[in-house]
Design brief:
single chain, mainly alpha, Rossmann fold, 3-stranded parallel beta sheet, two-stranded parallel ribbon, 8 helices, 50% helix
Length: 163
C-alpha cells in the first residue's frame, strides 16, 4: 500500500512519471496493495507482473528507471544487489540490513514514510546525473559481494575457523 501511495504522490507532482511495475509472487496479506492499486487514479500505469523467471529479471531491471525496495524487514536483500549489478539505481529502506548491503550506492528512505519514498522516487525521475551517480556507485558496491566469498565464509563458520 505504501508504495502505491508514494507513487500516487509522485504522479501528482511529476505528471510524466514512468509506470510502476511490481514484481513478485502472491504473498501473505497482499490483497491490500492490489486494492490500493485498483483505487489509484493512476491504476492504468500500475502493473503487477507476478513471479518473474530468474532469467527475465536482468532485462527487466536493465529497462527500469530504478528499483524501489521499501522493505520493512530484510534478512539480507538480494534484489537491491541484483539491480545494482544491472546498473539500475536503487531506493531502499534505511533499516534492517539494507544500509549495510547498499552502502552509499542507493537512496535510503523510511519505508513507512510515503512522502520520503515519493521524494526519493521524484529525485530519480527528475535528476539524470543522480541516476548516473547511483548507477556507478551501485556497480562498485556490488563488487563487494560474491557467491564465492559467501561460500568461503559459510564454510569457515561450519568448520569453526571464523574470526
Amino acid at each position: 500500500m505504501g508504495l502505491v501511495e508514494a507513487y500516487n504522490r509522485l504522479r501528482q507532482g511529476t505528471p510524466l512519471s514512468p509506470r510502476l511495475v511490481i514484481v513478485g509472487g502472491a504473498g501473505w496479506k497482499n490483497q491490500a496493495i492490489h486494492r490500493a492499486a485498483a483505487a489509484s487514479p493512476y491504476a492504468s500505469d500500475i502493473r503487477f507482473l507476478g513471479r518473474v523467471p530468474d532469467a527475465d529479471l536482468p532485462p527487466l531491471m536493465n529497462g527500469a528507471l530504478a528499483l524501489v525496495y521499501p522493505s520493512i524487514y530484510e534478512g539480507f536483500g538480494l534484489p537491491p544487489l541484483e539491480a545494482m549489478a544491472c546498473g539500475t539505481p536503487v531506493i531502499t529502506s534505511n533499516r534492517s540490513s539494507m544500509p549495510e548491503v547498499v552502502g552509499d550506492a542507493a537512496l535510503l528512505v523510511n519505508p513507512n514514510d510515503r512522502a520520503d519514498l515519493a521524494d526519493a522516487m521524484a529525485q530519480i525521475v527528475n535528476d539524470p546525473s543522480l541516476r548516473e551517480d547511483l548507477r556507478e556507485r551501485g556497480l562498485k558496491q556490488v563488487r563487494r559481494f560474491s557467491w564465492e566469498e559467501t561460500a568461503r565464509l559459510t564454510l569457515e563458520v561450519y568448520e569453526g575457523t571464523s574470526s
